[in-house]
C-alpha cells in the first residue's frame, strides 16, 4: 500500500539564481505482517498521509540532487525508521522545466516547460537485500521522414499492407534501464548520455541518416548502442509505439501528392518492445 501522485515543486536558491525540480512521487510499502488485512489491526500501518509528509520533509531537508538520489533517500528512510517495513518502492518522475535563455544568456529565475521526454526513476529495496535503482525516459516523440522501410514481411490472405522502402518512421518511446545494485553513480551524467545514445541510434549521422528496416531493428540498435557506451547499465527495456502517416490522395483535386501532405493514423497503432541485458 502507499501514496500515489505526490506532486510538488522544490525551489533552491543560490543568491539571485534559482533552481527548480518539480516532481511526482509514488511510494509503496510492504509490511512484515498482513494483520491489517486479515484482522483489521492497524497497529503496524504507517498512514499514507505520513508517507506523503515524509516525502515532502525529505525534499525540504535533503533537496533533490538527482531524481535517483531522492528515491534512494526515501527508500532508506522507511527501511531504517520502521522495523515493520519489509519492502519499499519509490517512483519519481520530473516535469521537464528548462532554464530560459535571452540572447544566449541563461535567465536567473525563469523557466520553460519543454516536452522532449519525461525523466523518471525507481528505487526499491527488500529488508536485508540490496537497494536497486532503475531510471528511464518516457513520452519521447521521435520522427525521421526517410531512411526507413518495411519489406519482406510474412503475408497471408488477410495482408493488405504494401511493402515500402521509403516511409516516415515516427513513434513515442519508453525506455527503462537497470543499474543493478546501487552504487555511487553520476546519475545526471549517465541519464544524459543514454538520451544522446537513443537519439543517435534512432537518427543516424546528421548528414545522411541510417536506414531502418523495421521498428524492431531500431529498438535493438538503441539498446545495443546504450549497452556499448554506458557500462553502468545492466538491463535495458525499450518500447516504441508507432505512429503511421498515410499519404493523402489528391488526384480528384487535380494534384499529385508526392508524400508532401500526410494524415497521422492515431489508432489503432503498432507497438514493439524488447528487453536486452548483459550476459
From TrEMBL:
Reaction it catalyzes: urate + O2 + H2O = 5-hydroxyisourate + H2O2
Keyword terms of this UniProt record: Oxidoreductase, Peroxisome, Purine metabolism
One GO BP: purine nucleobase catabolic process
Pathway: Purine metabolism; urate degradation; (S)-allantoin from urate: step 1/3
GO cellular component labels: peroxisome
Record's keyword annotation contains Oxidoreductase: yes
Statement: the UniProt record of this protein carries the keyword Ribonucleoprotein: no
Residues annotated as binding O2: 48, 242
UniProt: urate binding residues: 48-49, 150, 167, 216, 242
InterPro entries: Uricase
Family: Belongs to the uricase family.
Function according to Swiss-Prot or TrEMBL: Catalyzes the oxidation of uric acid to 5-hydroxyisourate, which is further processed to form (S)-allantoin.
Name of the protein in its database record: Uricase
Organism (species): Cariama cristata (Red-legged seriema)
